Amino acid sequence: MLKPEIEDGEQTLADPQFRADVLAGLERRPRAIPARWFYDRRGSELFEDITNLREYYPTRTETAILERICPEVAEIAGRGRAVVEFGSGSSTKTPLLLRCTAPSAYVPIDISGDFLRESSRVLSQAFPDLLVLPFEADFMRPLALPHTVADVPKLGFFPGSTIGNMIPLMAVDLLRTMRASLGEGAMLLVGMDRIKDEATLVAAYDDEDGVTAAFNLNLLERINRELGGTIPVDAFRHEARWNDDRARIEMHLVAIRAVDFVVDARPFDLAAGESIHTENSHKYGSRDARILLRSGGWTPIHEWTDPDGLFALYLAEA
Ligand code: AVI
């Protein structure tokens, strides 16, 4: 998740996909920009801050569950699997899993090569005897994993409820792709945030200190900096909404007043109250999660949660 793409204030050539997604997203109705573009350097730092917020329970809750259940995961999965992490494993969760599962190799997959190399270097220092095989790739596509682990059964690891940032159709596609990439006999350990009372959910995405607001608004700063935008950032406010119909938190940037601006020399205007939809974070009840896993070609074999039932980890087999 945390990808050092550009330094603050540094002028770089914009990613053509960023340009295309922003322009298309501002043109469509309702307006929407994919959440993946939150994570420039500043956005990654702000996300790191979010994970430590009092209101943002997912990170600490999932870490505590993992700490507790890890020996059990190791017993069910058996030792010596290759752990394949979808994302670079920058968190404290990866060392936890590596320590108790004693894998034959660790394969972190990430689209950002720089970040992947850096986090792999740090992990190799902490686990000098572990074979670390960083794999630079887009894990949304089927992958041929390194030869070295070709004949070793895999344990996929997808923590953080990142699966919740995809609409269910995409999540199912990703689960199927993971199954194909991980091969015969694979297992998958995946974290999903649970449906709970609306106040807790909204507070987690609209904290008192305004860190999540800054994270959301940073997208506009990034557009201004990288795409020659003139968006008046102070004319927007952050909003987190619970969409009960779709069981998801939505983040929006709402225009406080009528605004017009250019991005990449193209004019745009928003009426007061109009929003740009910037993120979905889907929440899954126990049955929903199991249906999702089965739709993605996985058989759920174990489910663990915290005492308050806020978050859940699922172990599934191919
Ligand atoms: C990365 N992802 C799982 C976070 C979430 O909870 O959906 C992103 C996030 N957005 C706002 N706060 C956290």
Automatic annotation (TrEMBL):
Keywords: Methyltransferase, Transferase. Residues 18-317 form the Histidine-specific methyltransferase SAM-dependent domain. PANTHER family: ERGOTHIONEINE BIOSYNTHESIS PROTEIN 1. Pfam families: Methyltransf_33 (PF10017). This is L-histidine N(Alpha)-methyltransferase. The gene is egtD. InterPro entries: EgtD (IPR035094), EgtD_Methyltrsf_superfamily (IPR051128), MeTrfase_dom (IPR019257), MeTrfase_EgtD-like (IPR017804), SAM-dependent_MTases_sf (IPR029063). The keyword Methyltransferase applies.
